[in-house]
Amino acid sequence: MDSPNQPKSLSTNLFYLFLLLSTNLLTLFISSTFYSSSSCSLNPISSTTTFTKRRSPSTTDSDGTGNPDTPQATIDLPSEFLAFSSGQVLPLGFNTNFDSDTFYPPVGQACTRFPDELSRFMSYKVNGSCPDDELFAQKLLLKGCEPLPRRRCRPAAQPDYVEPYPLPTSLWTTPPNSSVVWTAYTCKVYTCLINRGKTQKGFDDCKDCFDLHGREQNRWASRQTIEGSLDFTIDEVLATKKPGTIRIGLDIGGGVATFAVRMRERNITIITTSMNLNGPFNNFIASRGVMPLYISISQRLPFFDNTLDIVHSMHVLSNWIPSTLLHFLMFDIYRVLRPGGLFWLDHFFCVEDQFLDVYKPLIESIGFIKLKWVVGKKLDRGAELREMYLSALLEKPLKNSW
Ligand SMILES: *[C@@H]1O[C@H](CO)[C@@H](O)[C@H](O)[C@H]1NC(C)=O
Ligand SMILES: *[C@@H]1O[C@H](CO)[C@@H](O)[C@H](O)[C@H]1NC(C)=O
Ligand SMILES: *[C@@H]1O[C@H](CO)[C@@H](O)[C@H](O)[C@H]1NC(C)=O
What we know:
It is found in: Endomembrane system; Membrane. Helix content is 26%, strand content 14%. By secondary structure, the chain is α/β, with parallel strands linked by helices. The chain is globular and about 60 Å long. The two termini are 33 Å apart. One 2-acetamido-2-deoxy-beta-D-glucopyranose (NAG) is lined by residues 126-127.
């Protein structure tokens, strides 16, 4: 075990991430899908994990039938929501691909649990401008209304948008302030986001990430590998495979997508998932010229089985995630990786006892081969807390992965 010299802001970031997401996500998980008395026990499937259809208070008994199988009362649901999500009859009749003559557009199963929020989200002028409601929409999404229903209106946009910087300049240049609709964020210009690590108190996810000349500049970049370090470098990871065979992949919760930018510089295409937690992460990633994907960690990855060469995730997969969800998520990563593909689990955070009791067996149960496995203590808040990181490079077996 080594002692990585972790900057303080990391724990504060994690703590904030925990706070923020726990309020949004844990409520959902505990109330709907995951019955969990302790977030660090791996609950096997049991009757308590079964989804039970619960009517929202405002619709209770409104159908008057007392039949528990009656679909949630539709009375309170906004008309645009029903217009989108109700069965749509296919104009050409029965379609063998759908095995039906009716199509049901998908929305998150939790959308109808929040009829008031849903009503607000779906209230707009059809064919007109949408409300400027990014923050509100994201909250609804993080509560489990994911995917959000589509809307028939035009999103709030920047009044004085300018074309992005050309590649490769865009990769390492702060985009223009006018590339963002700032309503949802505390900061209203990029200068504020760049300086907030130094000037602002309080917690923010990826607080110093927008400063492309700060820590971002060196992440994963060093040529030399320090034996036993939690910080693997991109080049050492790529060197575990035949040159050129890592071409496409995914970075889960990738901040401002510096990982994707570095991979792009090596001609590797990475899609970066991110929420916009008090920062225009998706705009920033797109402005840099790499691909953002606006999905939370709860959603099934939108890739087909056995297709990606690499999946990376730093600091996001940690002990704030209910372990049953984490188990599903890890299997989803395994699913989308091709045989021989790499899963780079970068700085997985937890406490030593949790690691031995829960996370080590959980990760080992998925079926990966361990190429690298480094456990390091996290000491910045005191050794007595027994906080730790795991950095691992895992490979889906080339043969017999099923
Ligand atoms: C929106 O546009 C569609 C297509 O032209 C039209 O059928 C519909 O009536 C319009 N709705 C409203 C509320 O303007
Ligand atoms: C954004 O606005 C701030 C404050 O007006 C300004 O100092 C900064 O130069 C602007 N940034 C860009 C990239 O235009
Ligand atoms: C990336 O691809 C371009 C165009 O094919 C090539 O010129 C360049 O050398 C490649 N860069 C790397 C790091 O492989």
